[in-house]
Design goal:
By secondary structure, the chain is an alpha+beta fold. The protein has one domain (about 1-260): Creatine Amidinohydrolase (Alpha-Beta Complex). It has seven helices and ten strands. A three-stranded antiparallel β-sheet has the order 2-3-5. Strand 9 and strand 10 form a beta hairpin. Helix 4 runs antiparallel to helix 5. The longest helix is centred in the middle third of the chain and has 20 residues, at about 105-125.
């Protein structure tokens, strides 16, 4: 399957990125060191990158499509890497991992990361033929709303926020999924009944990619959370009775990520 091959190549690209961290830290434009390491793998392995790589270090991770990649990579901060390799067939992976540059998450970073991971897992758990595409997003948002309410970041309960007030959306401003294959972008002209309200069917592939983004100047969050941005994105195949995470082999949990960086 072409997508499986694209994901395997993308994993190698992520390995190259981690190996480039020392050089990235030394450069005033470390994000471009990261971008270059991934691009080199994409050209060697397959056709090219599937889309402009997002190599967002520190507070740049709070900018959803940060592709300038002209910032520094600093120890103690996170790197949000959203990147995918395109095969010669044009099938493209689309993976995001958020990595602690120093190799270990701080307590605040870990708290946010594990909340996003819980949201991703909750969304994945419900995927099966017969649900609507919107239900995947709703499952992730239930977790996001619960977490920001638990942390005291919104002035209402999670239930009230989800019912229409949408306070939690301040910190998670994008959708949870988009379809994947020959193109990684949503079609703006797609009819709602075929997309957001459409039925999930066996053989479909789409992303699950919740996130939490705390802007560096956002006074609604404690100072120790400001500037933290986390997204976890995986490529999901709908099977006859459920779903398969095609990118599960790329480390996702805190323990897996820290072990990956150490190796």
């Amino acid at each position: 399957m072409e997508l499986r091959a694209a994901i395997a190549s993308t994993k190698l690209g992520f390995d190259d990125v981690i190996a480039s961290f020392p050089a990235a830290i030394k450069s005033r434009r470390g994000e471009r060191v990261i971008e270059g390491a991934f691009a080199a793998r994409a050209r060697l392995e397959d056709n090219t990158v599937g889309y402009d790589t997002i190599a967002a270090a520190g507070s740049h991770a709070c900018i959803l499509h940060w592709t300038k990649n002209d910032g520094a990579v600093r120890p103690g901060e996170l790197l949000l890497l959203d990147a995918g390799i395109e095969r010669e067939s044009y099938y493209t992976a689309d993976i995001t991992r958020t990595l602690p540059v120093s190799g270990k998450f701080t307590e605040e970073q870990k708290m946010v990361y594990e909340a996003v991971l819980e949201a991703a897992d909750a969304a994945f758990k419900i995927v099966r033929p017969g649900i609507t595409f919107n239900e995947v997003h709703a499952a992730a948002m239930e977790v996001i709303a619960a977490k920001v309410a638990e942390w005291g970041l919104i002035p209402v309960s999670a239930e009230e926020s989800l019912s229409g007030l949408q306070y939690h959306r301040r910190y998670m401003v994008h959708g949870t999924s988009h379809h994947l294959g020959l193109d990684v972008h949503d079609c703006a002209q797609a009819r709602r009944e075929f997309y957001h309200d459409g039925e999930v069917k066996e053989g479909m592939v789409f992303t699950i990619e919740p996130g939490l983004y705390f802007q560096p100047d956002d006074t609604t969050v404690p100072e120790n959370l400001r500037g933290i941005g986390v997204r976890i994105e995986d490529d999901i195949l709908v099977t006859a009775n459920g779903a398969e995470n095609l990118s599960a082999g790329i480390p996702r949990t805190v323990a897996e990520v820290e072990k990956w960086l150490a190796s």
